[in-house]
Amino acid sequence: MKISEINAIFEVWEQANPNPKTELNYDSPYELLVAVVLSAQSTDRQVNIVTEQLFSMANSPSKMLELGEKKLTQIIQSIGLYRSKAANIIKLSQLLVEKYCEVIPSTLEALISLPGVGVKTANVVLNVLYGLPTIAVDTHVFRVSNRLGFVHAKTVEQAQKQLPMVVPDNYKKYAHHWMILHGRYVCQAKKPLCSSCGIWRYCQWEKKHAP
């Protein structure tokens, strides 16, 4: 895809939504980290339902440790992979207390050293919390970036490496937010809404249908 076409796509997204934000609900850096950990293989809507109760009881690493893994597991049991997520949240909370004085780290290396925090989660935190121009590749970003022709990647890891090289610097801060929203509400996995797509003419997906 030509750089002029990539720019045109981001211009459309920027005009429609100049300041996109995560749809996860949170009131503190710690709450954001926990919410993103919970969001893996789950919807933001379901995570928000769960965290409304969870954060009213435990909204800091120390309070999460007081809550305990058993109670945490019960609260988040409607979330996918809830047992492993509960164990990881307790472990990362312990590490945040012992090593970071309950402050969320601001580097990729430190974040991915936390249990349950992978590259995607770390990039979301760095972007949303610290305003860094990182691109977090989830299932929506992977699908949209491949369909549009931004990347030609067979794995999330490949897309994670390719996207920073093709996304213009001035759009990187919000790039993954725009792609997530586009994938969630327009370029859906099973039934893409090509008739509602404002960037249809630039899309290189061979299965797209005319609006």
Number of domains: 2
pLDDT averaged over residues: 96
Strand segment count: 0
| Fourth CATH level, the homologous superfamily of the largest domain | Hypothetical protein, domain 2
Low-confidence segments: none
Structural classification:
mainly alpha
Shape: elongated
Beta-strand percentage range: under 5%
- Cα-to-Cα separation, first versus last residue: 21 Å
Helix amount: 55-70%
Count helical runs. 11
Radius of gyration: 18 Å
- Main pleated-sheet profile: none
Query: Architecture of the largest domain, according to CATH?
Result: Orthogonal Bundle
Written description of the protein model:
By secondary structure, this protein is mainly alpha-helical. It has two domains: 3-20 and 136-202, Endonuclease Iii, domain 2; 29-130, Orthogonal Bundle (Endonuclease III, domain 1), CATH 1.10.340. The chain has helices at residues 3-16, 29-39, 44-57, 61-67, 69-75, 82-100, 108-112, 119-130, 139-148, 156-166, 172-185. α2 (29-39) runs antiparallel to α8 (119-130) and α9 (139-148) packs across α11. The model has no long low-confidence stretch (mean pLDDT 96).
Task: Give keywords.
single chain, mainly alpha, Endonuclease Iii, domain 2, Endonuclease III, domain 1, 11 helices, 59% helix
Topology at a glance:
Elements (H helix, E strand, L loop, with lengths): L2 H14 L12 H11 L4 H14 L3 H7 L1 H7 L6 H19 L7 H5 L6 H12 L8 H10 L7 H11 L5 H14 L26
